[in-house]
Each structure stands twice: as structure tokens, then as C-alpha cells.
Amino acid sequence: EEGHGYALPRNIDDLHAQRVAHLISCKTGGRYVAHVPWSTDSADPVAKDWAPKFIPVKELVEKLKRFLKYHIEIYEKMDLPASRVFIYSGHGGNDPLAAFSEEIREELRLEKLIITTTEGPPENIVAMFEAISDFRNY
């Protein structure tokens, strides 16, 4: 949660990302699995001023690996495919996570992992939607 002013709820990033994730799952036929309840910020320690629950990037990466492993194991027990994972974050401070996507993908033996946020120029958003086309009917 981070402050965006009095007009918006502190969890607006979460609400936005969950809505977009649901829309993406409907469009692609993929499954919405869970909300990742943590975030980081590229501003690191200073971020605690506006995001009191700030977690350093490397700590968040380790938490994310455990979180994903837990959900992947559940899907595997149900004989459902779980080798392609798409993480969409509504919090731009999570941008540093993308740099760890290959490490996470290899450690969890995923076929594909995409981590993206709402931040950045419009061409990033277009590239994101092109990338998730692989997730159709998966």
C-alpha cells in the first residue's frame, strides 16, 4: 500500500492490477491464480516514507519464489498446467522484479515467466499484450 492522495484508496495499485489480471485471464483463457500481497520500490529505503510496508527487492524476490512455488505445487497436484506464469503489477515500484524473471523462471523450472507493471511508455503496454498472446487457452 502506498499513499496516492486522499482521493484514492491506499491499495489502488492492487485493485487496478487485480481488475486488469481478471480481464487478461478472460481474454486469454488463462487462470487468475492469486494476488501477490507484497511490493517493493526502486527508490529502496526512502520508499518507507510513502509505503510503510516496503520490502527490499532481493527479499521480495525470495518471497515471490516461495509464493509461486506454493501455487504451482497446488496446480500440479490437480494435474493442471502451471509452467507459464504472468505477473502483472499495478505498482510501478515493482519494475526491478523484471530483472529477476530469468532467475525465477529457471529456479522454478517454468516454461515462460513474464513480469510487468503498469509503468512506462505505452509501447511497454503494447509489448506486454503481445507477449501474453502465448497464454491463450493455457
UniProtKB/TrEMBL annotation:
Name of the protein this chain belongs to: Creatinine amidohydrolase
Native source organism of the sequence: marine sediment metagenome
